[in-house]
Specification:
heterodimer; A: 78 residues; alpha+beta; SH3 type barrels; 41% strand; elongated; B: 364 residues; three-stranded mixed sheet; 16% strand
Chain lengths: 78, 364
């Protein structure tokens, strides 16, 4: 399924941003979110290199709590 | 294990022999994330589902709400169903627009309509009413995709439509012209899913419980195609393309037809988009039509918590190991390998997987 990855913005340069999650850093396009006020420290849902939606820190934490369960299960079951 | 393992991807491995595809293998690294909702309360699940799914978060959220309510014995009011249908349709429209204004121009080396897309996406997603949504779509249909009012385009007879396709400078016509003479073997390689209601899926609910069915679904034992083409296969502009075996062009045309109808305010009844069924005590099922096709959620609620959760998503139908992509790619026969690879890439895009993918060649 098309799972979105919650990431935090650490740098912004025009419509390009550097975002991080779990120690992994990625270039992310912000072009879909033109017109939305985005700042360093904000959280976004990322899919195939595009930030699709802004989210709150609490929402990002909730999604990651679930993903952590999934990753742990994948490591346990190989 | 990293976040990239979560997002999933598809690889389509082709073996070619002088422009003819001799073998197709689909390698899928997609997770069945629905199982994670087991043990959560219905309220938690309804909050989480829209946060997990990126392209169809609205449809997934609606399906979760509807299935959870059905599991708890609630029937959606007409106003609720209409509201859900509006959410699903607005999301489907921006997915169709992304496909037509960004993905196809990119694969053809044409200019992408980024600014126009972003503007229309924002207007569609912010639309408070169906008429606002229709107006936002009609603006982009007239200015970019059709070059004329949607109602005029839909009412054209075959000769007038062919003339538009041949001469128009609108993006829709430009894309279709690039697909001229692509295909040729009549009929779809995999039959389409029929139009269904949620009740039709109740008989399959014991299969839907299993991860194997969710990752490789079938209807009457066969893989089927789902999506805009399945919904519009009988339309006067789509059916002749199918009959001529121009399936990629038919899929693209079906998306234009859907957008044109929505831009005319012809959205159809809410139950065409979303409906629910109960599968015995404590189990609910929701059927939702998304841009990429049918989405089914089945959920069992016991003692205030989710006992089982299963999702059957459109990409699993169209990219089933023996489904539409695999069978249609297996028919490709072009003058050379480069042309065959190009056609396979167009075919994959026409079926539009919801995750990153690549078409790769296997050594002969």
């Amino acid at each position: 399924m098309c799972l979105a990855i919650p990431m935090q913005i650490v740098e912004i340069d025009g419509f390009n941003a550097r975002c991080t999650a779990k120690g992994v850093s990625r270039e992310v396009s912000l072009f879909l979110l033109q017109g939305e006020p985005l700042e360093i420290g904000d959280f976004v849902m990322v899919h195939t290199g595009y930030a699709r939606q802004k989210m709150t820190e609490q929402e990002a934490r909730s999604a990651w709590a679930l993903y952590d369960e999934l990753l742990a299960a994948m490591e346990t079951h190989g | 294990m990293s976040s990239s393992a979560l997002t999933g991807w598809l690889t389509f491995r082709l073996r070619l022999q002088r422009g003819r595809v001799t073998k197709v293998k689909i390698v899928s690294a997609r997770l069945q994330a629905a199982v994670l909702l087991t043990g959560k309360t219905p309220e938690q699940a309804m909050q989480l589902v829209p946060l997990l799914f990126s392209l169809c978060g609205g449809a997934q959220g609606v399906a979760a709400q509807a299935a959870l309510q059905a599991a708890q014995g609630m029937t959606p009011a007409a106003a609720q169903q209409a509201c859900w249908a509006g959410t699903v349709r607005r999301e489907a429209s921006v997915e169709h627009l992304w496909h037509l204004m960004l993905d196809w121009p990119k694969i053809f080396g044409l200019e992408r309509y980024e600014e126009e897309y972003v503007r229309c996406r924002h207007q569609c997603l912010q639309a408070k009413t169906d008429s606002d949504h229709a107006a936002a779509l009609e603006t982009v249909m007239v200015s970019e995709l059709l070059g004329m009012p949607s109602a005029d385009w839909l009412s054209r007879d075959q000769p007038a439509w062919a003339a538009w396709r041949k001469d128009s400078s609108a993006l829709g016509a430009k894309l279709l012209r690039r697909l001229e003479d692509v295909g040729g073997e009549g009929g779809l390689a995999a039959a389409c899913l029929p139009c269904t209601i949620a009740e039709d899926w109740v008989g399959l609910e014991q299969k839907i419980r299993t991860p194997a069915y969710c990752s490789t679904p079938t209807w009457l034992g066969q893989p089927r195609e789902t999506g805009a083409l399945a919904r519009q296969r009988g339309h006067a502009l789509v059916a002749p393309l199918l009959a001529a075996g121009r399936n990629i062009e038919a899929r693209l045309t079906a998306r234009l037809v859907e957008l044109a109808h929505w831009a005319c305010g012809e959205a159809g009844p809410a139950r065409d988009w979303i409906d629910v069924a109960r599968c015995g005590q404590n189990t609910g099922l929701a059927r939702v039509e998304t841009a990429r096709g049918i989405l089914v959620h089945r959920v069992l609620v016991e003692n205030g918590a989710i006992g089982e959760y299963a999702i059957v998503a459109p990409t699993e139908w169209n990219f089933h190991p023996h489904g539409a992509f695999a069978r249609e790619a297996g028919r490709i026969a072009e003058p050379d390998d480069a042309a065959a690879l190009r056609q396979a890439q167009w075919l994959a895009l026409s079926l539009d997987p919801c995750v990153a993918y690549e078409v790769a060649l296997e050594p002969p």
